[in-house]
Amino acid sequence: xxDRGDAGGNAGVQSGRGGVTVREASPNEHAEAGRVxxxxxxxxxxxxxxxxxxxxxxxxxxxxxxxxxxxxxxxDGDRVVGSATLELHDRVDTDDDEPLQPGESHIRMxxxxxxxxxxxxxxxxxxxxxxxxxxxxxxFMTLHTTERMRDAQRMYEAMGFARLEDRVLxxxxxxMTYWRSIAGPAEPAPSAD
Length: 193
Hints:
- The protein is an alpha+beta fold.
- Helix 1 (about 30-40) runs antiparallel to helix 2 (about 50-60).
- It has a single domain, classed as 3-Layer(aba) Sandwich (Aminopeptidase).
- The longest helix is centred in the middle third of the chain and has 15 residues, at about 120-135.
- Strands 1, 2, 3, 4, 5, 6, 7, 8 and 9 form a nine-stranded mixed beta sheet that branches.
- The chain has five helices and nine strands, in the order E-E-H-H-H-E-E-E-H-E-H-E-E-E.
């Protein structure tokens, strides 16, 4: 099941500071969205970290996930400066991830190119994801980040996301889990049990 309601249109446009806008990506923007998002993650690669380099290839392949997720782009004028993938019904990695829970939406691969940071693009991408998920009847949002991404952690916490139990991958890599209610008044995060 896909969510292709506003591809390339202006519905659901979010604005950041400094003239950055966010909307759903059109197919002709997929390659550039992938490039700039992979570039945003590249700074967190460590020497010899081949798994991270493989992940950059997955991030860059927006077209491969666009038919089962919603892709938002952050634009400076008509130039793509970032993107986010929103899972509403289907996961990007169907083999590795648990299915979405009832009411859950999940943000993946949010990144803003380094030169465009500090202008509200990342927050506008998160707000666009929340707005779309809420419009589709979702009641909570989840996401993962890593210990390397301290600015992202601060932003998510400032936006009302709460930490849940970390997800530890088979190779020992830790994904920090965040949760936020997006329906009605704020709710406490579920226990990590």
